[in-house]
Amino acid sequence: DILGLSQPLVSWHLRKLRRAGLIRTHRHGRQVHCSLDKARYHDCLRRLETLVDPSIQLELLPIGEELIEAEAMADD
């Protein structure tokens, strides 16, 4: 509900992230808990940095809770 996305769509994205090795999942009863594989995430970032021209100034985008707050402010 917080994201405004349907459960099937969220599950689809999580499956893609899990297959890419970016998140790990474990079951707790009927619930599935996901966590970021930080080592894999940082490895992906390092690889992406090799593809970006360092002379290009990229705008820093909000992430995590900052992103949620920014989206909430944009909706107001």
Quick overview of this protein structure:
With 76 residues, the protein is an alpha+beta fold. The protein has helices at residues 7-19, 38-49, 65-75, and strands spanning 23-28, 31-36. It has a domain at 1-52.
Report on the structure:
With 76 residues, the chain is an alpha+beta fold. It has helices spanning 7-19, 38-49, 65-75, and strands at 23-28, 31-36. The protein is flat and about 50 Å long. The chain contains three helices and two strands. Helix content is 47%, strand content 16%. A two-stranded antiparallel ribbon has the order 1-2. A hairpin with a 2-residue loop joins strand 1 and strand 2.
- N-to-C SSE series? HEEHH
* Annotation, overall tally of beta strands: 2
State the major sheet: 2 strands, antiparallel
Average pLDDT for all residues: 85
> Could you tell me the strand content as a percent range?
15-25%
Helix run count: 3
Relative helix content = 40-55%
What is the radius of gyration?
Answer: 16 Å
Distance between the termini: 17 Å
Q: How would you classify the helix and strand content by structural class? A: alpha+beta
Unreliable segments (pLDDT under 50, ≥5 consecutive)? none
What form results from the Cα inertia axes? flat
Q: What strand order characterises the main sheet? A: 1-2
